[in-house]
Specification:
This protein is mainly α. It contains twelve helices and no strands. It is 74% helix and 0% strand.
């Protein structure tokens, strides 16, 4: 049971890179701290060590304290959040962050991942739901378009089933994972219907 719980936690939506980039941005350019504070709460951070660092910076900001790697490390010691690798980790955060100019983009990623966790939805589940929506949209699109062209419910149902379950489309979804192309195929019947209407009017 414990192993299953640990596996579930690993599957919860989060972005290590985005969390690190947010923290790194605040360390290399403290001027962006107010903007980050407006966007994120400590609980939005999934990785415990990242959350502890953000909590320290969050507290320091509220008390108008100077924020830099040295003062943050000292604050972590006072809060009992200091670890043997804390100093090295702060340096790594600064090194892996390309620029603080994109900090709001990093915040958006962290916030979106936190929202998915709060909804209790794993990233895998989101993909599965999206795939199901693509299948449904494909079937409905094909049915409506073929019925519009052939004026036959039976033919429309048959065409919809064949198109939705065609090997090429299923390979795109489940083997190649090209969800963009699969989504585009939803509109192929619409294009065919449009051509049919143009030719019919001519």
């Amino acid at each position: 049971v414990l192993e299953e719980e640990e596996l579930l936690l690993k599957q919860l939506p989060h972005s290590v890179e985005a969390e690190q980039a947010v923290l790194g941005s605040m360390l290399i350019d403290p001027r962006c701290v107010p903007d980050v504070i407006e966007q994120l709460r400590p609980e939005d951070f999934y990785i415990r060590q990242n959350r502890e660092i953000y909590e320290a910076i969050y507290s320091m900001f509220n008390y108008s304290m100077t924020i830099d790697p040295v003062t943050v490390l000292d604050q972590m010691k006072l809060r009992g959040a200091w670890h043997e690798n804390s100093q090295q980790y702060l340096l790594e955060l600064m090194n892996v962050t390309p620029t603080a100019a994109n900090v709001l983009d990093y915040c958006a990623i962290v916030r979106d991942q936190a929202l998915l966790r709060n909804l209790g939805v794993s990233l895998c589940a989101c993909v599965r739901v999206f795939e199901a929506c693509i299948h449904l949209a494909t079937a409905v699109s094909c049915y409506l378009c073929v019925r519009g062209m052939m004026n036959s419910r039976r033919v429309a149902v048959g065409a919809s089933v064949l198109y939705t379950l065609c090997i090429y489309r299923l390979v795109n979804v489940y083997t190649r994972s090209t969800l963009g192309e699969s989504l585009a195929m939803v509109f192929f019947p619409v294009v065919m219907l449009g051509l049919y209407e143009v030719l019919r009017l001519d």
